[in-house]
Design brief:
By secondary structure, the chain is an alpha/beta fold. The chain is built from 14 helices and 14 strands.
Length: 331
Amino acid sequence: MTVSLRLSTTAARRAVRTVAALGAVALLVTGCGSETDAGKSEAKGKADAAAGTRTVKDATGRAVQVPANPQRIVTLTQEDLDAVLALGLKPVGITNGQGLNKPPAYLADKVAGTEIVGNLLQPVMDKVIAAKPDLILAGDMQDEQVLKQLREITPATLVTMAPTDTWQLSLMGVGNAVNKLSVAQKVVSDYKANATAAGEKLGKNKGAEVSIVRWNPDGPSWMEKKQFASGIALDMGLKRPKAQDKDGNAHTPALSLEKINEVDGDWLFLSTLTADGDKAFKDVQEKPAYKQLGAVKAGHVVTVNGSVWSTRGGPLAAQTVIDDISKALGK
């Protein structure tokens, strides 16, 4: 029987809202068109079980046979690594974090000694082979040539995230792929409860307008409302400044100094991803336009880790963002 790794958009949203809905979604299986097809599907399911495998669909809809209980998982993105660790598993091979030449700092203690098989979405094939994976989680990999090479290493290679997927939806897919869907359900439920509770403890800053910005070498970009860190802030009951009240899961083009007011808010959470971006931010702090921002004059600028806040996220990254916001606004 083929179990879908992807959930429908509507079902996924319901899944994030309630545990009950998540449980219902977990039972969905692909139907068969006739009694003959049903018999074939049942026979295939029994054969898969006997072989210790399951057939799931990845984020592209591709049917993939995976181990029933994978033992040697390789993750090619920070998001997949985050998800696997949150589900209680430890991979045998990982890639470096976004914009880094090492694993992301917030996960470093959990992956100490784990083999690095390349950079984000840039695996070194010899190193992947040496890891002897029985399951490769390829994140939002779109390079078909790379995917072909990975599938030659193990056919159990899955794309785990589509361009518009939330981290919750991707987590559910990874949970299904590693046969831990119920654990993924609980992780999402716990996150929602934690975010709500943390938002209630913000005192005078409860419901404040928070600006979430990444400073690039050519200027700042603010994050749209459905981007990872933005979603965490909204789940905590916080608001976005009027200029940033835009649906979307990306960030704006870099702004010029003439438009720097768009990054203002009651609080400004600011990150960089590169050394050039860090230098550009340090330089702009001497500019009058920056000094006139309300958040700057109030002393409400908080620098945060871009390799967490600017990614597509995961449950462990989500807790880091909750902690960062709570520490700054809960004073």
